[in-house]
Amino acid sequence: MSRLTRRTFLGASGSVLALAAMGRPAFAQAAEIRHFWWGNPERDKRTFEVIEIFNGKNPDIKVSGETLGFADYFTKLTTQIAGGNMPDVIQQGYGVLFEYIANGAIVPLDDYVGKSLDISRMDQSAIDAGTVDGKFYALSIGANSHMAMYNTRLFEEAGIVPGETFDPYGYTYDELSEFAAAIKEATGVPGTDDNTADYQNFSDFVGQKGAMLYNEDGSYGPTQEIVEEYWATWEKIRNAGGTPPGPESAGLSGVSDLALMGVVTGKSAMTYLWSNQLVGVQGLMQDKLGAAMYPNTAEMLPGSVVQPSQFVCLTRDSANPEAATTYMSAFVNDLDMTAVLGLERGIPSQSEVRAALQPNLTEVEALSVEFFDKIQGKTATLPPPPPSGSGEVEQTFERLAVNVLLGERSIPEVASDFLAQAQAILARA
């Protein structure tokens, strides 16, 4: 990583003065900025490289990177919040944004817009997604949506042909049950992961049933009937032989490591993730991946949404917010940095960056862009950020769904238990 020395500082003084003239302050001493994100080897490699680029271009700012896997990221962040030593810039997701605004961990960016932070070429939808109660808190670093990633070789061996016997952008759970079982029969590999304990899939299902995950008053939206139908739907697919056995799927509940996903390990032919993870998953496989939407109910109502894959946010503990927002601005605008980041965190929300990336996309990146083109008009409206307590509700869903996968309790009993706990969590949050 680049380090500032007296020689490099003096040699770069002209650049510093030029940057000050363009509207952002030059710092008399190197401002030290910490950037913390959840990652994986591919993301970490790219992010450390762009930090190197930024430090080389900005000798008056020194950025250092910190990273953890998703499972540990928020636990450490909670400890840092309590200790008052959060990094200056943190990665955040739309699903937890409201909680971190409510507890004061992140601060508005409005005072820096047009100065150290340039959002002039950002999509308005991305700006709106990062705006809460009229204040701009979160800078989108990519857009994504739910994606079913499938092993094209296994599908072909089973005679499941996209566009002919399988519509990747409009298939039902009943159709999934049929072709998942057919793939198992033809190849010996179950055709799909079992999403009984997958809260992302459940959230889509709720929208497909015409309901909201969280009501406007902050209460929980899904009914007993919806929860029961969701679990019964996956039970049907499982009983047809389309998924791995229940105990095997139960062991993966809550697991986020891409290397353990069924499509990567060969335990299934289809895995359900976020679209920005396509690049990372393909990097772990030899077989070529295909992309599809999540399955739908017979009514074919939209359930998935397009939302920021991640944000970068300024924390209350930053001692130098001008330097931190200068780095944040470069992270989404600098064409050298964004060329390295590519689409790994999602489709960039900055128009000039998208245009610059297009000619050099890899095959898997082009597939990601094609997926976004084809889901237009097939997604639901992005709801407000979930209320405080939503993360605990998700964990409760995953934990109780294991009872269903293991056959320890009946679906109606577990559904009733889950809804009671979800309402209690939201009421006390």
UniProtKB/TrEMBL annotation:
It is found in: Periplasm. Residues 1-30 form the signal peptide. It comes from the Bacteria. It holds the Pfam family SBP_bac_8. Gene3D superfamilies: Periplasmic binding protein-like II. Keywords: Periplasm, Signal. GO terms for cellular component: periplasmic space. Belongs to the bacterial solute-binding protein 1 family. This is Carbohydrate ABC transporter substrate-binding protein. It comes from Devosia sediminis.
